[in-house]
Amino acid sequence: MKRVAILISGGGSNMLALVASMTGDHPARPVLVASNDPAAMGLARAQGLGIATAAVDHRPFKGDRVAFEAALLEPVLAAEPDILCLAGFMRVLTPGFVARFEGRMLNIHPSLLPKYPGLHTHQRALDAGDAEAGCTVHQVTAVLDDGPMLGQARVPVLPGDTADALSQRVLMQEHRLYPACLRRFADGQAAPLFL
Ligand code: GAR
């Protein structure tokens, strides 16, 4: 059984979708949910499900990413994860942290990468007049929102869409895509999934 640690920063709806999927004959189980924000709603939600949690506030580290990551590593390594899933984790990780989990760290990003790495993806898709938007699950490398793609799901951009409306439509697909990609990854399937 593969052990999965999940890093979050906010509500944790993707984390909940991942956790809900890891039952029965699924080859993985959640062992830790960790956040850089002690007030993240997702932490309370994970606790409610009986999952071990850890909070390492990034703010006292005042921009010292390496020191923050060293503190974050403690509970993460203690959980002995085989796979690390970033699920709405909003801190950029240093190459040193990424290297520790090379080939076994996944991320979900709310755009059709390589379009719109970084923030404000939905507004950028609207501003560009795109007919489609979506989300991407990929392996994490030292380059932000880059790395081998594991899957993508698409949604239409509708007339009158706002960034909020579009983000909700994409989020519903994130909740389908990420569990499906994690399962395939844990099973050793390499081919990307398109929903
Ligand atoms: C999700 O839309 C996720 O794709 C995005 O943050 C949201 C987190 O929601 N992640 C990023 O933008 C990462 N760069 P959640 O906390 O409800 O899962």
From TrEMBL:
This is Phosphoribosylglycinamide formyltransferase. Keywords: Purine biosynthesis, Transferase. It is an enzyme of class 2 (transferase). The lineage of its organism: Bacteria, Pseudomonadati, Pseudomonadota, Alphaproteobacteria, Rhodobacterales. (6R)-10-formyltetrahydrofolate binds at R65, N107. The gene is purN. Signal peptide: none annotated. Its EC number is 2.1.2.2. GO terms for biological process: 'de novo' IMP biosynthetic process. Coiled coil: none annotated.
